[in-house]
Amino acid sequence: MTTSEFETSNRPSVARLTPRGRGAVASLVIHDDASIVDSTGRFVAANGKQLAEQPVQRIIFGHWGTEAREDVVVCRVSESVTEIHCHGGEHAVGRIMEDLASTGCRVISWQDAQREQLGWLDTELDAALSRALTVKTADHLLAQRNGILRDCLTLLRQQIAELAGDAEVPAITANRTVLDQLDELLAWSAFARHLTEPWKIVLAGLPNVGKSSLINALVGYSRAIVSPVPGTTRDLVTAETAFAGWPVQLIDTAGLRDSSDEVESIGVGYARQELQRADCRLILLDVSQPIAEEERQLIDSFEKRLVVAHKCDLLKSRANELPPDCIFVSSTERIGLKELMSRIVAEILPELPNTKIPLPISNAVVELLESVKSSVTALDLAEAVRQLDRSLS
Fold first, then answer.
1. 17: helix, coil or strand?
2. What is d(CA 77, CA 55) in angstroms, rounded to the nearest whole number?
3. What pLDDT is recorded for position 272?
4. pLDDT digit string (tens) for 128-150?
5. Which of the pair, 82 or 114, is modelled with greater confidence?
């Protein structure tokens, strides 16, 4: 931390802990002694005492402001931390924070407040845990928060520092072990990213193949419009759910065909872009009809994809026309849905770490590891140690 950053972090600050938007209650945290609240002249306790006179850990009822009073609950959590709980609307929160800012209090984000109090790494861990999408992803992130990632980075820092001070060990040879460990950590980057961001599952096929019906069947409600008219889906339609406890985003795309309709053509372009970015591609075939040449070309376009023989309750295609690994599914009869979900999970999670493996839980942690790796590769071990020291402090 630089001198200017240290001086800034020692100035009074206020941060909002609860999410923005309409809510019953909003919570603010002030890092300074209670006199900063008294100096606004806005807080009036029900017992008539100044906040600085109130005992630590006692809940104090009162109001904020002399006109248009706002009921608040205030607590001195410690000698240097005060919490204010007020109505959750933006007006009430903004009013209190503006009054505090007028006394020289810095208005900062909760992440910045955490960073100043807990340090960089714990803030990244807390932020990731707050964005967990399912119980399973929360389990992995909680394990990281409970010390697994910190212990790993601490050990790496120790190993690099020992290498930097050992003139007898050939640097390139010794660094190889550290680089291997960094590579092992970075290898889990994609998995770790999906602990806070769902895997993208893109459904593609010719018009009227039943993509919208399949999405509705998988999520359990009518998310996408179903119509026998080809070209009904023109924009991307998304729905989020979980398969076997893992978060996924299903993306319904426009039917892939050449069209003179400008809007539909734009939708087809979006569909092709999403297919390139997908974590898992579902290529749907309408097996109530003979397999079209365009469908064969679509299947051959991607090395990694799952082929869904859709409308299998109306099967008319010959067996030799279908890929041997296709999944037979009927959305209307709910045939093959569990098998399809299982195959999707196997596709997006070919290898699953246990909760004891350290994971790079955010883009910032990935950037740190890549930067440390670059420094080690360049034999600038002192810089690698400095980078890890900053993250661990």
1. coil
2. 9
3. 65
4. 999 999 999 999 999 999 999 99
5. 82
Please give the backbone phi and psi of residue 331, each rounded to the nearest 5 degrees, phi first: -70, -40
Is residue 269's pLDDT more than 90?
Answer: no
User: How far is residue 263's CA from residue 300's CA, in Å, rounded to a whole number?
Assistant: 27
Q: Residue 255 class from Cβ within 10 Å (0-12 exposed, 13-18 middle, 19+ buried)?
A: buried
Residue 393 is encoded by which pair of tokens?
Answer: 């402090």
Provide the total of helices (H) and of strands (E) in the chain, helices listed first. Answer: 15, 13
Distance from C-alpha of 136 to C-alpha of 214, rounded to nearest angstrom: 25
Residues 6+ apart with CB under 8 A from 270: 235, 236, 253, 254
Check residue 221 and give its pLDDT.
67
Cβ neighbours, 10 Å, residue 15? 21
Closest CA to 217 of 195, 253, 250, 184: 250
SS3 category, 48: coil
| Through-space distance between the first and last CA atoms of the chain, rounded to whole angstroms | 9
User: And the tokens for 390?
Assistant: 């900053």
User: CB 184: neighbour CB atoms within 10 A?
Assistant: 12
Task: Name residue, tokens 């809510």.
Answer: 23
- Which residues are registered as beta bridge partners of 62? 45, 72
Domains and CATH numbers, the chain: 3-117 (3.30.1360.120), 126-188+355-392 (no CATH), 199-348 (3.40.50.300)
**Residue 316 falls in which region: left (phi positive, over 0), alpha (psi -120 to 50) or beta:** alpha
Q: In 3D, which of 46, 345, 232, 10 has the Cα closest to residue 1?
A: 10
Alpha helices in the chain (DSSP H): 3-9, 35-38, 90-101, 110-118, 120-130, 135-143, 149-164, 171-186, 189-193, 211-219, 262-277, 293-300, 337-348, 363-377, 381-392
What is the rounded CA–CA span in Å between residue 333 and residue 317? Answer: 18
| Least confidently predicted of 115-119, 265-269, 290-294 | 265-269
